[in-house]
Design goal:
This protein has helices at 25-35, 86-93, 110-126, 151-158, 176-191; strands at residues 3-5, 10-18, 45-48, 53-59, 66-67, 70-78, 98-104, 136-141, 165-167. The protein is of the alpha/beta class and 192 residues long. The protein has a single domain (3-191), classed as P-loop containing nucleotide triphosphate hydrolases (Rossmann fold, 3-Layer(aba) Sandwich), CATH 3.40.50.300. The chain is globular.
Length: 192
């Protein structure tokens, strides 16, 4: 749920990047962080243990306007990629306002994508969220590789409810901001 800071006249919204390990969640966050104006962003924080890592930072977009006189500040998080870090994944989803599912388009990552999507749905349900009623987009990352699944196959496996989806090459920034803008607009629309 969004948090309102009356002192700074800001609405704080949490967007979580979810998906299989090594799918591009961290690459997305780092690319956004590098491209957002330094005076509009907080520090990039990496919460790392020996076996897992979560990234976080917040930023205040200047081009999305205000809601009833309040600016909107977005807090972007990644979850650990491996499903066996499920306790961390659940904790990071607490208070989520929007989801970006980053799928790895490679054929050999199909099962990992499906497992991560099922895990996301299960964890959202535990928090009382219905993914069909919340801001949710899918990014099909690594589209530049030779062994990728077709968009139709990816949609069939991962997007039965037809949420907005975007092709991406996170390492080059292709599709990264399109994905973020789409989920951000959905979050703002839900707040209005």
């Amino acid at each position: 749920m969004s948090m309102i800071n009356y002192a700074s006249r800001e609405i704080n919204c949490k967007i979580v990047y979810y998906g299989p390990g090594l799918g591009g969640k961290t690459t997305n966050i780092e690319y956004v962080y590098d491209k957002v104006a330094p005076n509009t962003r907080g520090k990039l924080i990496s919460l790392a243990t020996e076996t897992e890592r979560t990234l976080f930072f917040d930023f205040l977009p200047v081009d999305l306007g205000t809601i009833r006189g309040f600016k909107t500040r977005f807090h972007l998080y990644t979850v650990p990629g491996q499903v066996y870090y499920n306790a961390s994944r659940k904790l990071i989803l607490k208070g989520v306002d929007g989801i970006v599912f980053v799928a790895d388009s490679q054929q050999e990552r199909h099962d990992a994508n499906v497992e991560a999507m099922h895990n996301l749905y299960d964890n959202l349900a535990e928090h009382g969220h219905d993914p069909r009623r919340m801001p949710f987009v899918i990014q099909y990352n690594k589209r530049d590789l030779p062994n990728v699944l077709s968009l139709e196959a990816l949609d069939q496996a991962l997007n039965p409810t037809s949420v907005p989806s975007f092709e991406a090459v996170g390492t080059r920034g292709i599709g990264v901001f399109d994905t973020l803008k789409a989920v951000s607009k959905q979050v703002i629309k839900q707040l209005s």
